[in-house]
Specification:
The structure is a single chain. The chain has one domain. Helices cover 63% and strands 0% of the residues. Helix 4 packs antiparallel against helix 5, helix 5 runs antiparallel to helix 7 and helix 7 runs antiparallel to helix 8. The protein contains 9 helices and no strands. It is mainly alpha-helical and 302 residues long. Keywords: Membrane, Transmembrane, Transmembrane helix. InterPro entries: CWH43_N, DRAM/TMEM150_Autophagy_Mod. It is a multi-pass membrane protein.
Length: 302
């Protein structure tokens, strides 16, 4: 039986893995903490004043003998979280993925990176200043983490919104990116809607978490804390998809035998020049998969 042709070919080891590394570490930490608490018999820790709670807060488990795990995993994923945004900014500036089409987009990207750094320092300090010994500081750091990660997402998602609302300025070959006559019928706008749905759900979970905590309904509050923590991981999946076009282009350059238009190119500069000049023969019989991920913008950033 003949093997079917893959829909998308891409370089396996590439930049899109950066957020996925953070995802594995973050979800792995959460699962490990839940497993430890369950293996211990779901205890109510002494510093919780004996009040029944099911489940307990992440911070409660993180204040026990597995605090080193909490600190190390929080710090590790923080590096890759910020690294994802930095890499996205870099790849757009060097035109390895969709370049910026508006002068505000690089500013939003920088603001997103700054907010992400502050927010990720917040989660690191959440782990360091545990709720048992530094309760007030711990809660303040939780607030900083949530607030600044929210601002980082808003800035980053606004970049996708600008792409989606301006399809005429987009670099990708339109038969791959635009799928309808409506101005909003493009993949960048769909990506923005997905991010907006994620953000609205995250905001709703955070509000429920804080509201139940203020009402001293800790069990329900903890449920939403765990929920938003796992939901946070889906953001990293979305960002991984944003970086995937660079891996697609890398694969096409390294495997010209699958893409006839690259067979005679000797170096990357020629390849880039070919893409910038729309080096596609109008009479070519190449399949859609042979087209570049994007061509260079005819509307440079001002």
């Amino acid at each position: 039986m003949a093997r079917s042709k893959p829909i998308v070919r891409f370089q396996v080891i590439h930049y899109y893995l950066i957020p996925l590394v953070a995802l594995v570490v973050w979800w792995g930490m959460l699962i490990a903490m839940l497993a430890v608490w369950g293996a211990q018999g779901r205890p109510i820790y002494s510093f919780m004043n004996g009040e029944y709670q099911n489940p307990v807060y992440i911070s409660d488990i993180g204040a026990t003998n597995i605090q080193p795990l909490f600190i190390s995993c929080s710090g590790f994923q923080a590096i890759f979280f910020v690294g994802t945004l930095v890499m996205g900014f870099y790849l757009r500036k060097v035109k390895k993925i969709q370049p910026y089409i508006d002068k505000h987009q690089p500013r939003l990207a920088i603001a997103s990176i700054i907010c992400a750094i502050i927010g990720q320092l917040g989660i690191l300090f959440v782990a360091i200043f545990n709720t048992r010994d530094f309760h007030s500081v711990h809660l303040s750091m939780v607030g900083i983490f949530i607030a600044f990660c929210f601002f980082a997402c808003v800035c980053d998602f606004a970049i996708s919104c600008i792409f989606g609302l301006n399809p005429s300025k987009l670099d990708p070959v339109h038969d791959q990116v635009i799928f309808g006559k409506n101005r909003l019928a493009n993949l960048y706008f769909i990506a923005f809607i997905m991010k907006l749905i994620w953000l609205c759900c995250a905001l709703a979970f955070a509000i429920c978490f804080g509201t139940y905590m203020r009402q001293d309904r800790d069990s329900k509050s903890a449920v939403f804390e765990w929920l938003i923590s796992f939901w946070y991981g889906l953001l990293l999946v979305i960002w991984s998809i944003d970086l995937l076009p660079s891996a697609i282009r890398k694969y096409r350059y390294k495997h010209p035998e699958h893409y006839p238009r690259y067979q005679n190119l000797q170096d990357s500069s020629q390849w880039e020049k070919d893409i910038r000049n729309h080096g596609i023969d109008n009479n070519s019989t190449m399949s859609m998969d042979d087209h570049p991920t994007y061509v260079a913008s005819v509307n440079p950033v001002v």
